[in-house]
Structures
1.
Amino acid sequence: MSMISTDQTRIDPSKLDALLVRALGDLSAGYGGVMISIGNKLGLFKAMSGAGPISSRELAARTRCAERYVREWLNAQAAGGYVDYHAVSDTYELSPEQAMVVADEDSPVFMPNAWHIPASMWLDEEKAVVAFRTGAGVAWGDHHDRLACGVGAFYRNAYRASLIAEWLPALDGVVGQLEAGITVADVGCGHGYSTILMAEAFPRSRFHGFDTHAESIDAARRHAAEAGVADRVTFEVAGATDYGDSRYGLICFFDCLHDLGDPEAAARHARTALARDGTMLVVEPFANDRIEENLTPVARLYYSASTMVCCAHAISEGGSLVLGAQAGEARLAEVFRKAGFAHVRRAAETPFNLILEVRR
């Protein structure tokens, strides 16, 4: 008797095979992510970077690891395409391109830290199951601490590559104002990487980061001190509707507006806090406006994270408008128009982000 109850006369074998290949690829990627994270923590990728062909024994010696584990790990990396294997010499090599992805911590495409995020999602699976059944929210601070670390480290490099060089120059006149000196609010600043990047680039301006997650604010303060910008950066525990009493020349929302339970209230508060000639920089996950236009690997990543983290947090805050991480430009623009802003413009975009300029 068949174990499959589905009417097999309706099954297209080629479609089934294609789906199984995809499922096995996803499963392989899940296993591989653990291997990448371990390689990052042990310094295995770094030890290979620029070293040329290297044997498992040599790599084990350089990293003070057990050779048998290192050899198996190397084979997993070679099977995944993250290192090259040379059969003639039985050696392994990290190409410059591979090094950018797995070894260079300052590279804009460095990926190992991103694996903290699905790790935290697995650890929080039971919370998500309860949330699905009850409709309750899960606040950012109620997730495993690997989430905040992973998000902060992953976005740091993306912001480092684009924020100063591309996104701020795409805003009309803002770079000149920052150079002259204005007050800036970074709402939902997390570990403070975006705030610190701006403070390093524009020493005449003053920067204030706000976040509801106290542990992230503590981390942001440490990062600012390490970067040497604590004299012009402050971080405070505050929400998106109760921060600061200044008139800000620039208010930034970096990948956080969609996490808020009431983004329209956040936009209204920003309007009252913004200087008359001020600008808002809103960076959001890239999305088209229609679901059928978002059926891509990047959108799958965002929809999944949105299910576990973004929507869950917005619901925990009351969820009057749960945008999700794939809101799209039209829905985002409507939020600001309802808050009284007349000017909403797509200033730039990347495969991962929409960058909006918002003014009165």
Note: The longest strand covers residues 274-285.
2.
Amino acid sequence: MSRFAVTCVFVVMASGAFGQDINQRLPAPVLDSDFPVSEIDLIRLGWFLFFDPILSGNRNIACATCHHPSLGTSDGMSLSMGEGGIGLGPARLPVVGNEPKGRIPRNAPALYNLGAAEFTVMFHDGRVEMDADAPFGIKMPDGVALERALPSALAAQTILPILSADEMAGQGDENPISRAVAAENYRGVAGAWQQLADRVWAIPTYRQGFSALNETAAPLHITDIGRALAGFIAYEYRATDSAFDRFLNGEDQALDDPQKQGMALFYGKANCVSCHAGPFQTDHRFHAIGVPQIGPGKAHSQNPSVDLGRGAVTGLARETHQFRTPSLRNIAYSAPYGHDGAFATLEAMIRHHLDPFAALGSYDRSQAILHEMAGIKDWEVLDTPDDLIDIASGVEIETLDLLDSEISALVAFLQALSDVEHAQGRLGVPTSVPSNLPLDLR
């Protein structure tokens, strides 16, 4: 009998109560070969760029502001306050006289394991994905085509928030980047991408580092920045040393009894594995589970407050309100949950899955973790019966009865997916960045 088979003995025994052989549903252990290998010099450049506000139009917000390691590589909020704020997470405040124009419409997703090769779809709606028929093999949002090849969907994803007025670029006429973005001028020598690349190139540490890495003195291109950011994220936020990983690798005692019970439920009676499959607990597909919508949505429909999710990307009515299945690795660190952060706890998220129809109509709005912002219609969709019915009509999952003790066991198993040692990354937060701009610290 193999070591992997030995570790599954408990699961096979437990599955008898549920009438399923969940031994066949457990994933194989994660391997080093599941992740790319990047040069340490590239990772180091990406490390600086991730925390450096130089990539924002007003030089005041970095990737790390909404994806900070101290907040589970997210920001601890249902919906983020981007450009126009100062501080991190729940402590972030509007800048007087330059307040944000709106909330970021979707929850800032965690970054754990996004560098693994199987992650070929990015964003809650999948608007960036590997596609052999697309230019350079990566499908991008309409109007934002790549200029050069990139190695992964993650690398392509990293160069899009810098084009968002609410996230990093700034508003209207505030700066040259925001002006280019407002004019939808992203590409070419005068586009927002190249302007940002030129900014980075003008800083000696970056110029010397990229010149040595690329073995050329040619000016920096935005794809160089995307490669560096993706290389850093893949290295820094790999989370594959959890109790569950150790269990899969033969350490039967790595999980305690409640965690094993939760695992048996996850891969058996509760059938979480129907969507949360594979080594990272995601099928990388899109599903409608009736998550109540808070905040502004993505404004893709006649009603600008209704978020159509995947349906807005594909134009397919059957994919309306569908969102990408998130990975559950380090999920204990990245609350709140759902594509709009509607659920404050893992227990609340699980209970919603048990009966989405009832849960949608009785949503407890106090779960939403939101900054105080004037003029924002956070509850417009939930206060509109037709919109609620529309969200409910697409729900794909069936109702399920679980005991409170079973829900607790599922929570215990989800906590066993935590890579405690690497929850805040490997390199951590730099003490300074090459631009000498101030860091968002916690």
Note: The domain at 40-74+109-236 is CATH 1.10.760.10 (Cytochrome Bc1 Complex; Chain D, domain 2).
3.
Amino acid sequence: MRGSGEVVTMNAVELHEVTKSFGAIRAVRSLSLTIGKGEMVALVGPDGAGKTTTIRMLCGITQPDAGSLSVLGFDLRTQTAEVKRRIGYLSQKFSLYGDLTVDENIEFFAEIHGVRDYRPRREELLEFTRLTPFRARLAEKLSGGMKQKLALACTLIHTPEVIFLDEPTTGVDPVSRRDFWKILASLLKEGITIVMTTPYLDEAERCHRVALMNEGAIMVADTPANLKRLLNGTLIEVVCSELRRAVAVLKDFPLTREVQAFGDRLNAIVDDSKRDMPKVLHHLKSQAIQVEDWRVVTPSLENIFISLLTEHHVSESEGV
């Protein structure tokens, strides 16, 4: 049962028309988003999209210029202390203390959050993050992945209901990234709401919903499956010689609406693969570009994001 000062709400996070500027720079523009309890939502976008500023406002670190924000039903303008008691925040530059051991770091953050009988919770978190064998090791001696797991343990020591993670796996090796995501999956089973930013679109696909951001605004927010349906046309993967020249050639070809290079192959969007691809292949051949293989593929979030950004820039240039 909730205490007398608490508010029952169906949503964990609500933002309505939130705006934030730093001098002449508009970091967040009329941003609205609702996140349900127990959801994991990713904010995805290029540097400068406003992701970190949004997270910092939701943690009560930065105040918005306009609009309203609430977490677990508490207004962040007037009930910041209530919000901070109930959330955890893992920033891009989480400050572990290198001269303290794993145990001592968790103890320190327990004291900061006023957790008195922290030892049982610490044991649980050490086991949860598989750091028990390293509890006596200095934090500065940990690998990058282990540091992130320790940082998460410190974030969870006061049992928050919502956690905000700002690019938690950036610079972490693939094995540690996988372990980190296993931990997040376990947290979801406990009913914890997770709001994160990530530069990895393959990670974003694991979330319940993804908000694609650009220039301080959310272009679209939906499930990964629904976002993939936004692609207007059919996505074709082409393996060919002279990839860069092939991209340039197809960008000027009327039947290929968008062309994106991915590693050693390119992705092109056409209206109808059966009708258009013979003409596309003939055009490449006429330019002395040899096509080794092509196939229709399911779009990734990266395809969708690049397509939306392309449409956005085209609209701006046309004054739409």
Note: The CA atoms of residues 125 and 153 lie 6 Å apart.
